[in-house]
């Protein structure tokens, strides 16, 4: 589109208290993981999201080459792009 559709619209500004809390509590997470006990792909995805703190897009966009081992610490990491186009190195728990 060549025409700016947002022209004339007022931006939305929310205070910190108005932004909803998007964290999931431990009990809810454990129930969800137990519910998907027979779906190993979804269960693994939920566990990965919960243990790394990564966003879904940060999990699904990296390539195999972005997974690496830190030989000094002997830990696995994934290199991923953040929401604001930064680079993040997230620890993958084993």
UniProtKB/TrEMBL annotation:
InterPro entries, alphabetized: DNA_brk_join_enz, Integrase-like_cat_sf
Top-level taxon of the source organism: Bacteria
Gene3D superfamilies: Intergrase catalytic core
Alphabetical UniProt keywords: DNA recombination
The protein's name in its UniProt record: Integrase
Organism, as annotated: Paenibacillus eucommiae
């Amino acid at each position: 589109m060549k025409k700016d559709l947002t022209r004339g619209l007022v931006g939305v500004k929310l205070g910190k208290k108005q932004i909803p809390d998007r964290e999931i509590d431990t009990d809810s997470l454990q129930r969800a993981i137990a519910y998907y006990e027979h779906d190993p792909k979804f269960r693994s995805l939920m566990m990965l999201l919960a243990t790394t703190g990564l966003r879904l897009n940060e999990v699904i966009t990296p390539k195999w080459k972005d997974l690496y081992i830190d030989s000094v610490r002997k830990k696995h990491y994934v290199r991923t792009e953040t929401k604001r186009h930064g680079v993040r190195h997230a620890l993958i728990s084993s």
